Amino acid sequence: MVLQQTLRWLVIGSIFALTIIPFIIAQSLYFPFITGKNFTFRILVEVGAAGWLALALIYPAYRPRRSWILGAFAVFVAIVALADAFGAYPFKSFWSNYERMDGFVTLAHLFVYFALATSMLTSEKLWRAFWNVSIIMSLAIAFYSFLQLFGVASLNAGFSSVERLDATFGNPIYLAVYMLFHIFIAALLWIGYWRESKPGKRWLLSSFYGAVISIDSLVLLLTGTRGTMIGLVGGIFVAATLIALFERDRSIKKWATGIVVGTLVLAGGFYFLRDSAFVHSIGFLNRLATISLTDATTKSRFMNWGMAWEGVKERPILGWGQENYAVVFDKYYNPGMYNAEPWFDRVHNIVFDWLIAAGFLGLIAYFSIFAAALYALWRAVLQGAHIEEKAPNVRRKEADVSAFSVMEASILTGLLAGYMIHNMTVFDNIVSYILFASVVVYIAWRESAFRATPVLWSRSLPQSAIAFVAGGAALVVWGVASYVNGAALAQNRLLIQAITPQEAGLEKNLEYMKGAIAENSVGTQEAREQLVQIASKVASLSEVNIAVKQDFYDTAVAQIQQQGEASPLDARAPLFLGVVHSAYGNHEAAAKAFAHALELSPKKQGILYEIARNANQRGDVVGALRALKQAFELETSNIQARILYAAALISVGNDAEADTLLAPIIETGEAADPRIAAAYVAKKRYDKIVLIWEAYVKAQPNDPQGYFTLAGAYYGSGDRAKAISSLETAAKLFPESAPQVAAFIEQIRDGTLKVE
Questions:
Q1: Taking the alpha carbons of 78, 81, 82, 83 in that order, is the dihedral positive or negative?
Q2: CB-based burial, 255-288: b 16+ in 10 Å, e otherwise
Q3: Where are the TPR repeats (predicted)?
């Protein structure tokens, strides 16, 4: 009995401990905001699984009950497992990488968490305790967010605006969805306690949960995450509409109707005031107001979805396996994405993400979890109403005839709707996974407990064997945990050491890197790519001896070739291979690697730029021009491609075609690029530089460098007076540049200024 209770509280404790995961930042690990949280989640679930397995094999009370939600989740996991096994890169589908720590390993842990939570949290008291602990944690996270807002705590790299708080998540999007869940959970608890409390105590409930909702909502807004803000409003609208339609209490129906109308009025008012100074003066409102079909982020989302659809059409049934969108992104790359980051591993849309990961079967299975949850919520409510209609004169509590009241079902439906809206433009992380799983577990437990559905299996081991069973379960889970986490943690630490300067020199860095790759775990691809980047830098260091450089080169080439063999459809490996070959002057080998990368991603301008650079290094001017022309013609609005192609044309004396390319962007100032200036300087065509930079200083009068470049062009063309005039203008507009101006003017007058 003592061992039974010890195991029970061990499992429950591991479940409650999940609420601390948002606070974890593992500074000693690679991707500290991601890896620390994920390793902690996995270890806690594994600890809980050991205790739960021992209890479930002996005591029926600790077994999950049958439910449509559990069945839907199990089918989903099975389909994803098949998709991963037959996907483009099964190893990565299973393990993921340190940047995401997603993949089948995480999904399997979530399913185990579902099973043990629905088996162990078997009373409303326990569930409310769990939710209340989580809510208190959200308040602590909110407090830390406010410290960021007021400058007491620093924002994390990449998000320097106090209008985009990220707390301990490292990403405002992750903080936003965390708050979204807790806003609705607080509302759910508020309603539950309100109905059970005496009128005199209700003001305390209103004060506490009202404060939680207000504080968490404010933090959500200050993340500036537009999709989650819309999700919050949409979730509130859905919940209020359902309450207005189905709630029997007239006073509550009036309140809900008021919220529906108020939401519509606020949304309409915001739309009409979206261009006002007031809206643009408030950071999060300004971000909402900038949503449009022409917005850069919106355009990139649509292009991403279009590329994803091409991938779906190629593999519609089971998709490409988890973590393989990068392959689709390369193969169907839209050149219009030239201004976005060059590598996407997520579609930023939950529908397309699961279509890519597991095809239509996976998407249907994923949505079946939502469908099963909604069915559990509303079947209970509708059945309760049906019973009331059959026995209208029998007074009974709503809880006597239904697992969920109308208000509870509406709030949970609103939460699921808000979460889905949020995921239409972003993707999940481990904390949102945990919260989503917790919500559907709660719905499954409450509905199955209310209906007293049978447990999954009835046969039991004798109670006298509990010690042996517990020991056996612990050994099994320890073995699994060691396999899942041991090598991954060791590799992570070795990778950190490999990219950190070592007193023993670069040889030690390479030793650590070789050790990290040898672990063959979660971060193998990341380690290989880091090796290539380090090796490429080492190539240019004159103080490093030839033997060390050769070791870096040989190791980097061998490892990135192995990566290409492991993931033959991914353009990153041959591109990285070409980069390291180029760094060490092996331009012929680099050319072959870049050509292979282009075969895998024929429309990516970045690869064509590398091909052009490589062609120039090999003296193949025609090949360089051909590659740059191809890059430009893929997307003529790409200023970078236009500039590079024009500069190449100038360098071979084709001024006429270069003029045609530059003409549309001279007046806007976009033609004033250092590469254009360098090409014209090499040809002594200072008159061309004058023409371009005269337009630039008109278009961009607040850039002091423009006046200096223009002065140099005037000087090069022999017009010293205009050169001095341009510099004097710079001195007037930018007094801090006066000393530099004086020095340049002196050089102009004595004829010693060098124009390069």
A1: positive
A2: ebbebbeebeeeeeeeeeebeeeeeeeeebbebb
A3: 571-604, 704-737
Evaluate if pTM is beyond 0.90. yes
CB atoms within 10 A of CB 496: 16
At residue 403, φ and ψ (nearest 5 deg) are -70, -30
Structure tokens at 534: 């380090």
DSSP label at 170?
T
Give mean pLDDT, residues 238-251.
94
Q: Is the dihedral of CA 496, 499, 502, 504 positive or negative?
A: positive
Q: Cβ(30)–Cβ(488) under 8 Å?
A: no
- Contact call for residues 138 and 434 (beta carbons, < 8 A): no
Asked if 414 and 231 count as a contact pair (C-beta separation under 8 A), the reply is no
Taking the C-alpha atoms of residue 634 and residue 500, their distance in angstroms, rounded to an integer, is: 40
Place of tokens 């690679």: 30
Confidence of residue 398 (pLDDT cuts 50, 70, 90): low
What is the amino acid identity at position 349?
N
Phi and psi dihedrals of 454, rounded to 5? -70, 160
Report the 3 state secondary structure along 485-518: HHHHHHHHHHHHHHCCCCCCCHHHHHHHHHHHHH
Q: How far apart are CA 570 and CA 589, in angstroms?
A: 19
Residue whose structure tokens are 């063309």 = 717
Q: Name the E strands within 212-325.
A: none
Q: Retrieve residue 479's tokens.
A: 């073995």
Contact in structure between 559 and 514 (CB atoms under 8 Å):
no
pLDDT in tens, 143-169: 999 999 988 877 665 544 456 899 999
Q: What is the CA radius of gyration of the chain?
A: 31
